[in-house]
Design a protein that fits this description.
Elements (H helix, E strand, L loop, with lengths): L8 H18 L9 H23 L5 H18 L2 H12 L11 E4 L1 H5 L2 H6 L1 H6 L4 E4 L3 E2 L13 E5 L6 H13 L3 E6 L3 E3 L3 H7 L3 H4 L4 E2 L3 H7 L14 E4 L4 E4 L6 E3 L5 H16 L4 E4 L17 H17 L4 E4 L5 H4 L10 E3 L1 H13 L3 H10 L7 E5 L12 H6 L4 H12 L11 E3 L9 E3 L2 H4 L2 H7 L2 H20 L3 E5 L32 H5 L7 H18 L9 E3 L6 E8 L2 E8 L5 E4 H6 L5 E4 L4 E4 L3 E4 L4 E4 L1
Parallel strand pairs: 1-2, 1-17, 2-5, 5-11, 11-12, 12-13, 13-14, 14-17
Antiparallel strand pairs: 3-4, 6-10, 7-9, 8-9, 15-16, 18-19, 19-20, 20-25, 21-24, 22-23
Bound molecules: 3-O-alpha-D-glucopyranosyl-D-fructose (OTU).
The site of 3-O-alpha-D-glucopyranosyl-D-fructose has 16 residues, from loops.
Length: about 650
């Protein structure tokens, strides 16, 4: 084969035919009854694409016979080890590949230790999750990581060992099986841009093993780091300036995009791709149904660029996707790209990530809450909301990370907003400095050079509940509750999967105690990662308490979503209702049409009956949220911070 030209499908088939007999021979007995024929069929289908992608990433110098055979061997071994239970799930998912687009899907995320102590504890809480209608559970990184600094688990020392304080690998498998039985899909992170500096590969590199030094980016002096840094953006400037860390014992500079103890993997080395593909399939075989692809923008580095969102990063994710299609087809990917809105969408396709966090929606919601105005959201969201066939957003309000004001600047200019000043207004608002603020947030990674900063704080604290409770202001408590339910109203009904940050449903406020924990102090994101409060959760049973109002409000939203076909994935149609405080959109599916309206103002707002009739509504309709029928002769009046779903 002429390896200076891209491979043709024919050539890749030939190469597969050369490898297959050898694979079969390696597992003469195991392949009996292991649905090997199904595996080979998938290989026929997806291998040419994988081969083509790897060729484009690694080029002619790639040792195809060695590396391709190695990756196929990894796939085969994983397939042979895969439980029958998971193999049936593979078949089911292949029959209904877009299962995650159902209106019955509702997601939640939590830290194992903070939510329930350990993995066994999570099993005990399945009832609570089911009460809320959860069908997708994202557990934050739970693998072995360095003692002390571990970036909340995002510095992984082994992808095959659970953090002993949380449980064991067997317990994880049991939990995933139990969740599956209860109709809940387990979602875990795939932290594949970096490992911790205590991962076996890093330890070998630290001991001078050249093979493993090549797994990372290491330089004897500042020449190359300086050259790279000319075009790089610091990600955690408070933790360390720049993107490299000097390791005295090694005498080398190591690429560390995030924290000093998180070493970026070098995907220019094909061994790294192969090794990580093995780790990914191991997670899939533990029963993980969805992988949150951590920090995707940073996978590929190229001198003279900002080393974010490069084409090779996309190709690598697609190559991982092919590996999953071959050996664990039930697995789907969710992209975590917290970058410019136009870049985020590029990670989303059935060949790459089926799902993506929806930071533009999240940022717009917070912006509308602060400005009591929906104009920017209406101007900007529709531009990029539509995703390729079979793909969905994961809509969220808060996650474990900070909120960065990732607007597309030209959207702001277009409606007369000065981006820099506006970001500064938002930072002042959410830290409570602005006069009109009800928030109790904090700045994160304030960069005095550029003036950039991001925001920390829980939903409840950012929505005014913490302040109102502290001041004992009943009126403001009521408004804070409404604000939270207004925001979640949109999260539950907008096209995509709603994702609840567990604790929001009972209004957990910021946790200031983290500062007394040396492992957490210094990273303000811990402010919005409070330990779950099961005593307060008990109060959900009393309807007049804040917890009761929030929990039942969320439950109602969850039920409205599940009981109405209109919330099945389809195109969301945004509408201008003629009042800039009110955000509106239609959801239409299977003959059902629902108009959602959200009043972001602290005052009542009106939508004229003429406008409603233009939008096709009759004089009488039902608001599913309040459970009331409404007659709008002249106008429809929305209460302060009211969310409606009109049928
Ligand atoms: C992710 O976030 C995780 O969500 C963080 O908790 C981790 O610290 C980090 O990766 C390292 O593993 O910069 O502020 O565009 O913005 O991956 C959060 C993607 C982050 C990055 C994102 C990163």
């Amino acid at each position: 084969m002429d390896t200076t030209l891209p491979p043709t499908i024919h050539e890749s088939r030939l190469s597969l035919q050369r490898v297959l007999p050898r694979l079969r021979k390696s597992f003469p007995t195991e392949i009996e009854g292991a649905e090997w024929a199904v595996f080979e069929e998938r290989l026929e289908q997806h291998f040419p694409v994988l081969f083509d992608l790897l060729w484009h990433v690694y080029g002619p110098s790639y040792d195809f016979f060695y590396h391709v055979e190695q990756i196929l061997r990894t796939c085969a071994e994983s397939w042979l080890e895969r439980d029958t239970d998971l193999k049936s799930l593979d078949a089911i998912r292949e029959g209904h590949p877009h299962w995650y687009q159902s209106n019955r899907v509702v997601g939640a995320m939590a830290y194992v230790d903070l939510f329930a102590g350990d993995l066994e504890g999570v099993r005990d809480k399945i009832g609570y999750l089911k009460e809320l209608g959860i069908t997708y559970l994202h557990l934050m990184p739970l693998f072995r990581s360095p003692d002390g600094d571990d970036d909340g688990g995002y510095a992984i020392s082994s992808y095959r060992e659970v953090d002993p304080e949380l449980g064991t690998m067997d317990e994880l498998r049991e939990l995933s099986a139990e969740l599956r039985q209860q109709g809940i899909s387990l979602v875990l992170d795939f932290v594949f841009n970096h490992t911790s500096d205590e991962h076996e590969w890093a330890m070998k590199a630290r001991a001078g093993d050249e093979e493993y030094e090549k797994f990372y980016w290491m330089y004897p002096d500042r020449t190359e780091p300086d050259a790279f840094e000319r075009t790089l953006r610091p990600i955690f400037p408070d933790a360390h300036p720049g993107s490299f860390t000097y390791r005295t014992a090694l005498g080398k500079w190591v690429w560390t995009t995030f924290n000093n103890f998180q070493w970026d993997l070098n995907y220019r080395n094909p061994d790294v791709f192969n090794a990580m593909a093995g780790e990914m399939l191991y997670l899939a075989n533990a029963g993980v149904e969805m992988l949150r692809m951590d920090a995707v923008p940073f996978l590929w580095k190229e001198m003279g660029t900002n080393c974010e969102n490069l084409e090779q990063a996309h190709m690598l994710i697609r190559a991982f996707n092919c590996v999953a299609r071959i050996a664990a087809p039930a697995l789907v990917f969710k992209s975590e790209a917290i970058v410019a809105p136009d870049e985020i969408k590029k990670y989303v396709s059935e060949d790459e990530c089926h799902l993506s966090y929806n930071p533009p929606l999240m940022v717009q919601l917070w912006n509308s809450i602060a400005s009591r105005n929906a104009s920017l959201m209406l101007h900007s969201l529709p531009k990029r909301f539509e995703l390729p066939h079979g793909c969905s957003w994961v809509n969220y309000l808060r996650c474990h990370d900070d909120i960065g004001w990732g607007f597309e600047d030209r959207d702001l200019w277009e409606i007369g907003i000065q981006p820099h000043d506006h970001r500064w207004f938002l930072n002042r608002f959410f830290t409570g400095e602005h006069d009109a603020s009800f928030s109790r947030g904090r700045l994160f990674q304030h960069n005095p050079v550029t003036g950039d900063a991001r925001i920390c704080g829980t939903t409840a604290s950012l929505c005014g509940l913490e302040k109102a409770l502290y001041e004992g202001d009943e009126h403001q408590i009521e408004y804070a509750v409404r604000r939270i339910l207004l925001l979640y109203g949109i999260i539950f009904t907008m096209g995509g999967i709603p994702l609840i940050y567990l604790g929001d449903e009972i209004g957990l406020a910021n946790d200031y105690d983290f500062e007394n924990d040396p492992e957490k102090a210094g990273d303000d994101r811990w402010l919005h990662r409070p330990p779950f409060d099961w005593d307060r959760a008990e109060r959900r049973k009393e309807p007049e308490t804040v917890e009761g109002k929030l929990f039942h409000g969320m439950l109602k939203l969850s039920q409205i979503r599940k009981n109405n076909q209109a919330f099945h994935e389809t195109l969301t149609e945004f509408v201008d209702v003629g009042n800039h405080h009110v955000f509106g959109y239609f959801r239409v599916h299977d003959g059902q049409s629902i108009l959602c309206l959200a009043n972001f103002n602290d005052h009542p707002e009106e939508v004229s009956a003429t406008r409603l009739r233009q939008l096709g509504l009759r004089k009488t309709f039902t608001d599913l949220v309040a459970g009331q029928s409404i007659v709008a002769t002249e106008k429809l009046v929305l209460e302060p911070l009211q969310f409606m779903a009109i049928l």
